[in-house]
Amino acid sequence: MSSTLLIERQGAVETWTMNDPATRNALSDAVVDSLLQACGRAAQDATLRIVVLTGAGGAFCAGGSLGGFASLIGQPLQDGQTDPLLAMNRGFGDLLHALSALPQLLVCRVDGAAMGGGFGLVCCADHVVATTRSVLGTPEVTLGLPPAQIAPFVWLRLGENAARQCLLQGLSYSAAQALQVGLVHEVIEEESDAAWQQTLKRLMRAAPGAVASTKQLLRSLRGPVPDLRAAAAQAFAQGLRSAEAAQGLAAFARKQPAPWTLSGKDPA
Question: How many Cβ atoms sit within 10 Å of the Cβ of residue 74?
Answer without folding.
Answer: 18
